[in-house]
Amino acid sequence: MKKNKLKKRNIIILIIILLVILVEIINPIKLYNKYLLSNLNYDEISVENILANGLKDEVLKIGYNKTLDNVFKSSDFKSKNFSMYSQIDYYDFNNFTLIINTLIDKGYNVEDINNILKSADADSLNTFLDKEYIENVSNYLKYDFSILKNIDRYFNYQKENNVDYELAVIYVNIGLDNNFYEQTNIVTDFSLNMLVNRYNKLNSDFIPDNLETVPSEYSVGSQKLNAEALQAFLQMSKDCKNATGYKLLVRSGYRDYQSQEKTYNSYLQAYGKTYAENYVAHPGYSEHQTGLAIDIKAESKDVFSSSKESKWVYLNAYKYGFILRYKEEYEKITGTKYESWHFRYVGNDIANYVYENNMPYEEYYIRFLNNK
Questions:
Q1: Which of 48, 339, 356, 362 is the catalytic position?
Q2: Long-range CB pairs of 36-44, under 8 A, 24+ apart, other chains included
Q3: Pick among 3.20.20.30, 3.20.20.80, 3.30.1380.10, 3.40.50.10490: CATH of 185-369
């Protein structure tokens, strides 16, 4: 009898032990927590590490966070940085967790880190990580058009020229901290919004798309323009005649590299280097090679700026997609003296914005079109 009771008790103890082991293995609470986190789309490894670090409740409050999903999968995860991790935007950099840990350790806050990451590529980020802490870095990097690799140039330009942070970023991105024709970019692809200036050069063999001959009644000599720019100009010329009694003429449209070279050299010989540099672009740096620029001649008189047509054009060109490219107040940016006759086709939307905000095309390009 005693043996039976003892045997029964041992069986019960064994069952209890097995149940404890089973519960530990299955752990319905843990399974439920895994379900909750997995249902938020966290990776399986992330789920395990979230639970191991006792951060389930905090993560559930936050919901799915791509940065958290990635840092919890990393061996570089640091629990002390958890609250900052959840506020940092995710970017697809190798060793992402190690990168943000390094930035946190250097003393950068969440705003700084987000601005650093959004303005970086892999090379510039690696270079930046080797730098000492930069105070107020977000003053330079908070703009959508900021570029991390330019951070030292921003700092130096702003300090030397006493401009605000935004203008320092814009002017450096344009290239104004270098001399004209230095540190130039090669532009290879044609587009209606392309930028060609003292820092952006076309190769000698560049030919724009869809060149068409300007009808003789709207042209001084034989001229060509991009087809879309030409149609816009013809409509503008017709409307100008309806308004003023005089039409507009194309005095100079497309010029290839070799023609621009001849033009520059002729001005150089006739007027000297200073005049040529102020009024004529070096070959490869002229908008005329894009087929989108027009030197306009008035039908009524030789001096364009004093004609009826010019007054109408200044007020209406943007409606047809054209901007007055070289205003007097833009000279330090464009490197070209005021040209009352030089208009550039950019399309209606851009022309309207540039006109309404009175900004040089360089600034518009940096703000909205520049491919970092």
A1: 339
A2: 36/60, 40/64, 41/69, 42/68, 42/69, 42/72, 43/69, 43/72, 43/73
A3: 3.30.1380.10
Cα–Cα distance for residue pair 180/45, rounded to 1 Å: 54
Q: What is the pLDDT along the chain (372 residues), one digit of tens a residue?
A: 555 555 666 666 666 665 555 555 555 677 787 888 888 999 999 999 999 999 999 999 999 999 999 999 999 999 999 999 999 999 999 999 999 999 999 999 999 999 999 999 999 999 999 999 999 999 999 999 999 999 999 999 999 999 999 999 999 999 999 999 998 999 999 999 999 999 999 999 999 999 999 999 999 999 999 999 999 999 999 999 999 999 999 999 999 999 999 999 999 999 999 998 988 999 999 999 999 999 999 999 999 999 999 999 999 999 999 999 999 999 999 999 999 999 999 999 999 999 999 999 999 999 999 865
**For residue 59, what are the CA distances in angstroms to 31, 78, 91, 101?**
16, 15, 20, 19
Residue identified by tokens 């530990």 is 24
Cα–Cα dist 338/323, whole Å: 13
Residues 202 and 196 sit within 8 Å (Cβ to Cβ): yes
- Give yes or no: 362 in active site: no
Q: Which two tokens stand for residue 8?
A: 């029964």
